[in-house]
Write a structure and sequence with these properties.
104 residues, five-stranded antiparallel sheet, 7 strands
């Protein structure tokens, strides 16, 4: 299986695209910092602020389930897939070409 250019993928797909695909609705916003219910542990409270995401740095953290990472790792955590297959799944879900690396 060929590799994926994760740097290109992280640059091409934004955290906001991933959150939109997940149906995430923040309960509060302060610039690029959003808070709301955690999609990883599927918090049902619409006023929850345990999930914190920074759109600029493309990093997230849940202060309850302790899941954290970038937007590709968020998709992997939600889907339960390892990062490589999750990246392929995310590209296909969003209609993006997978940035394959062919070295030979």
């Amino acid at each position: 299986m060929p590799g994926i250019d994760f740097d290109k993928l992280r640059a091409d797909i934004t955290m906001e695209q991933v959150l939109k695909q997940l149906g995430f609705e923040p309960s509060s916003r302060s610039g690029l910092q959003w808070h709301g219910p955690c999609p990883v542990h599927r918090s049902t409270s619409t006023t929850s602020r345990t999930f914190s995401v920074n759109l600029g740095t493309r990093r997230y953290c849940c202060h309850k389930c302790h899941s954290k990472g970038n937007h590709l790792e968020l998709w992997a955590a939600i889907t339960g897939l390892p990062v490589h297959p999750a990246a392929v799944d995310l590209c296909r879900t969003l209609g993006h070409d997978v940035p394959w690396i062919h070295r030979w």
